Amino acid sequence: MSTSSFSCLLLRTLMTFFFLVPFTSSISFRFPSFDPNSTTLFYEGDASVFNGAIQMNDYEYFARNGRITYSHRVPIWDSATQRLTRLTDFTTHFVFSITTLGNPIYGHGLVFYRAAPDFDTPQNSNGGFLGMFNTTTLGTPSRNQIVTVEFDTYVNTPWDPPVPHTGICVNTLASVKYLPWNISLHNGFKANAWVDYSSS
């Protein structure tokens, strides 16, 4: 085999290899403080910015909720085929504080969620529904395409475990895994949360 034939074969092999290797890109964003005029985040319901932090609901009223949504799609599967054939990992970290203001009755908690881009807050989804479900959508988990990590401060029967908790929920409010979490021991403290998802 001549040198030029070998070089051509090597080049063809390398080109084939490079075309078979999937190209990846990384998405990263950081919000050290929040701007109420930002177009990167959507503030919905009672969510508002106060002193560079997000306040999720107005504590003077019951049965309310707030939500913040990142305005760009964050793909976790192969968008060319619209199938979950090439899943990807993701990691997020956020700091939050839940304050009861000394009241024995307080809100139901906080949720980090991953959902389809067209997911809207259902009507009548406040309180124990955590702004994610209502009586209609909770009863049809096959229609829901949502994964949540909940910091649940109030026990709602029949779906909650018997204690306030941190839980992982898939298409419903019933935690598939949970650990007890008592808000009265952490009232007003800053909590650091990391959510890691491994596709393998």
TrEMBL record:
**UniProt keywords, alphabetically:** Lectin, Signal
PROSITE patterns, sorted: LECTIN_LEGUME_BETA
**UniProt xrefs under SUPFAM superfamilies:** Concanavalin A-like lectins/glucanases (SSF49899)
User: What is an example of a GO molecular function annotated in this UniProt entry?
Assistant: carbohydrate binding
- Supply the CDD domains for this chain: lectin_legume_LecRK_Arcelin_ConA
UniProt signal peptide: 1-26
Name of a matching Pfam family: Lectin_legB
Q: Locate the Legume lectin domain: which residues?
A: 27-199
Q: Which family does it belong to?
A: Belongs to the leguminous lectin family.
What is the protein name given in its UniProt record?
Answer: Legume lectin domain-containing protein
* Biological source species: Aristolochia fimbriata
Q: What is the lineage of its organism?
A: Eukaryota, Viridiplantae, Streptophyta, Embryophyta, Tracheophyta
